[in-house]
């Protein structure tokens, strides 16, 4: 089991073999002008990225989605995601950027007000400083707690999932609080949001993540299939990058200052 | 265990003895001009109603809260609640009326659009026809799914409750869907909403219910205590009325046509 809230070191080969993540290097030759992190093998795995390749090469309509949990300062691990977003953006992707204030409340007890402040002053400021144009027409930045479409979709998703499912995917137990149990479903809705009517309906979306986020992708792919008839959702594609090993030898984490090199240092 | 979604017959004495519900008849002499259903003993039990009595007698500020799940036609069982609301309204209460579209989606799969239509054409129309002035300043009618304050409060509540709690109170199991698990917390938020800043802050609120709804009250009283420090919430009071025995001998239920006498018959 992979724990998205943990901070441990990963055996990448095992992930590729056991969890159905495919080897990214096999696709590399098919991508015109691949991103630097692809060429260097930092992006080591994917799901369904082969469906994105013709869209990227042909500058066709597709989406890229990412989320940020505003829980501390940004570190150079975050820069890997931003570099990828910039590359997709240059390839013509529309960009959906979720500020995960519901997650930071459920997981860290950070108020919505505080999360918004951290997101604007720390995260969005760095995104802009690193060259991502967040004011472009095809960019949607939003706070989870403020997005009505997202919350309605989350509740619909919640009807298709039970405690057994959440236990199997995330290792939750009966003493997990209900907000923590609910918030992965908000993240599933985050990933599917770019395919809702409000954003032009079903399309291919890719989610570049660290491999610790794969449980969300597996759950989302399952939910997309269940909601396909009603919404026409396509399964989201994903890529997986290696973690920067933190200064302590563990995963670099915003909320553990001794593991991280912060972007403002 | 009492099942709010079941339709079975109740031993009222046992409820008064075992679940901490107090005998209403002991308060009857203290209430000036009591409601007809109080005098007739249809309202048989209460929690903390003694705290309401001086406010009612003195025409002081207090609230009354009720919810309606738009799942079918209204029947004469609903009229008992409306009669009580009218009485409280005459006594100067402010009224909070939740249209439980999130509940009807989670429990019956009714879409928000359909729920709104049923609520307006069937329920609210009957409330008005039976003499309740829903346009008055001190009346707040809302759809759960459309109320941002309610949904934020629900999520905060969800952080204070775990699966064990929900299992103990409602008998949920691991195959209960997450929307069904979440929606009682929306109802807790419904009950506490009249005490939020938006509605003037903490005050005494009474919830007149059938005894099958008592699990929501017990959970809400527990949550009110947990959120007291942050919000100043007072424990809600409640009254319990006997069910009309349905035409089949079971509880009268909107969604079981053969048990009910509908208001438009």
Write the layout of secondary structure elements.
Two copies of one chain form a homodimer.
Chain A: H1 12-18, E1 22-23, H2 25-28, H3 36-39, E2 43-47, H4 53-57, E3 63-68, H5 76-90, E4 94-99, H6 101-108, H7 112-129, E5 139-143, H8 148-158, H9 163-170, H10 178-192, E6 205-210, H11 214-226, H12 228-231, E7 237-241
Parallel strand pairs in A: 3-4, 3-6, 4-5, 6-7
Antiparallel strand pairs in A: 1-2, 2-7
Helix pairs in contact in A: 6-10, 8-10, 10-11
List keywords for this structure.
265 residues, alpha/beta, Rossmann fold, 7 strands, homodimer, 13% strand
Describe the structure.
Two copies of one chain form a homodimer. Chain A has 265 residues and is an alpha/beta fold. The first copy, chain A, has one domain: 3-Layer(aba) Sandwich (Rossmann fold). The first copy, chain A, has helices spanning 12-18, 25-28, 36-39, 53-57, 76-90, 101-108, 112-129, 148-158, 163-170, 178-192, 214-226, 228-231, and strands at residues 22-23, 43-47, 63-68, 94-99, 139-143, 205-210, 237-241. Chain A has a seven-stranded mixed sheet with strand order 1-2-7-6-3-4-5, sandwiched between helices. In chain A, strand 3, helix 5 (76-90) and strand 4 form a beta-alpha-beta unit. In chain A, helix 6 runs antiparallel to helix 10 (178-192), helix 8 crosses helix 10 and helix 10 (178-192) crosses helix 11 (214-226). Chain A is globular. The interface between A and B is medium-sized, with 32 and 32 residues.
Brief sketch in words of this structure:
The structure is a homodimer of 265-residue chains. Chain A has 265 residues and is an alpha/beta fold.
